[in-house]
Task: inverse folding
């Protein structure tokens, strides 16, 4: 009888221990990065940098094809930087603001829109100010590359070569950074940006030469 009593009294304890030792299943969800959400600022930044780099370098090389004075080249590049940065800011702001108006109107027409999801959905909306600032800053940074490359070089031919070389290197960097951030093929992106920049500089140089008598 004593042994039966011991077995009866111990059985609940054993059951309790058995339950406590059961491992709990933990589900770990990995949150993947949505690279499509980077499209807004990435597009403005990459395009702004490329535009600043290519347009100012082409402008300086075009002027340098007919004028050898370093001051003329620098002043032309600086004026292009200021004008281009303002143009990029205004254009990007207007463009993204128009996109924002369209998306807000679409949200109001959506019957399935819930008020408790309003804050989450507004976070994904385009930001005109952010896009304008990113575009302006990127344009200015890109434009500074040919300006800084030419400012300390007095020799005409060397100056043109240094501007072209610095622009080429910056095009490769900008193309690579944009590809990495957007998870795109690096070399394809770099080559596309590089060829476009070379064409712009060559065409500007050649046409400026042709129109000067």
Result:
């Amino acid at each position: 009888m004593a042994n039966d009593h011991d077995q009866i009294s111990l059985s609940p304890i054993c059951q309790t221990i058995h339950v406590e030792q059961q491992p709990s299943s933990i589900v770990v969800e990995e949150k993947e990065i949505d690279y499509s959400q980077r499209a807004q600022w990435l597009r403005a930044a990459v395009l702004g940098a490329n535009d600043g780099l290519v347009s100012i370098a082409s402008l300086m090389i075009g002027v340098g094809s007919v004028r050898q004075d370093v001051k003329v080249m620098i002043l032309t590049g600086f004026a292009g930087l200021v004008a281009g940065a303002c143009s990029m800011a205004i254009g990007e702001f207007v463009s993204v603001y128009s996109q924002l108006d369209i998306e807000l109107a679409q949200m109001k027409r959506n019957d399935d829109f819930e008020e408790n999801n309003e804050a989450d959905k507004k976070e994904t909306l385009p930001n005109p100010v952010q896009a304008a600032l990113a575009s302006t800053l990127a344009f200015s940074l890109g434009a500074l590359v040919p300006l800084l490359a030419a400012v300390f070089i007095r020799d005409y031919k060397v100056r043109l070569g240094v501007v072209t070389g610095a622009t080429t290197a910056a095009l490769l960097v900008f193309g690579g950074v944009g590809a990495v951030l957007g998870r795109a093929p690096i070399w394809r992106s770099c080559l596309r940006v590089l060829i476009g920049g070379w064409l712009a500089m060559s065409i500007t140089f050649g046409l400026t030469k042709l129109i000067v008598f």
Q: What stands out?
A: The first helix runs from residue 2 to 20. Residues 5-35 have pLDDT under 50 and may be disordered.
